[in-house]
Amino acid sequence: MTRSNTEFQLGGINHLALVCADMQRTIDFYSGVLGMPLIKTIDLPAGMGQHFFFDCGGGDCVAFFWFPGAPDGVPGVSAPAGRPEQGDLVSAVGSMNHVAFHVPEELFEEYRTRLAAKGVTVSPILNHDDSPFGVAREMYDGVFVRSFYFQDPDGILLEFACWTRGFTDADVSHTPKTAADRHATAHA
């Protein structure tokens, strides 16, 4: 099943802008380790910082700001404290929790092996399904996406993911939670 946007003709993500502590280290990781071409660099006016863009495929970019006075991130607030298998995946409202890059299903396991060989710590493979725990030990028809997680040098949580099946109307079946539900849970 495919659903189309009836309001705007969107072609995907133009770019997602994140903040780094060290632009050279960011280039070394995103271009050197992940192989993303650096396609545009900008020195911001009045010494405000830099803004660099990496091609992450499909016409989409991941971009980074470097600000000389940016405060350090706070694990568990501005981003998750670690990878999902390490514990808490929660981050603050308005934060960027993680970036998932789509990879071909037939190369998924090879890519995990290649990243580990480059010295990147990767999570176990997660076979996401609709079971009570949300993850299956083995692949089966109910798995809708496979993924694994890793972090960049600034602790930004990244994911390589591949869809394993199409979606139907049955895949949209949960009642959305509200801010009132969030506050009720916090006080319980």
TrEMBL record:
Pfam families: Glyoxalase
Source organism superkingdom: Bacteria
Every VOC domain range: 12-163
Family matches, as CDD domains: VOC
InterPro entries according to UniProt: Glyas_Bleomycin-R_OHBP_Dase (IPR029068), Glyas_Fos-R_dOase_dom (IPR004360), GlyoxalaseI/FosfomycinResist (IPR050383), VOC_core (IPR037523)
SUPFAM superfamilies for the chain: Glyoxalase/Bleomycin resistance protein/Dihydroxybiphenyl dioxygenase
One MF term in the entry's GO annotations: dioxygenase activity
Record key words, sorted: Dioxygenase, Lyase, Oxidoreductase
Record-given protein name: Catechol 2,3-dioxygenase-like lactoylglutathione lyase family enzyme
Lineage of the organism: Bacteria, Bacillati, Actinomycetota, Actinomycetes, Streptosporangiales
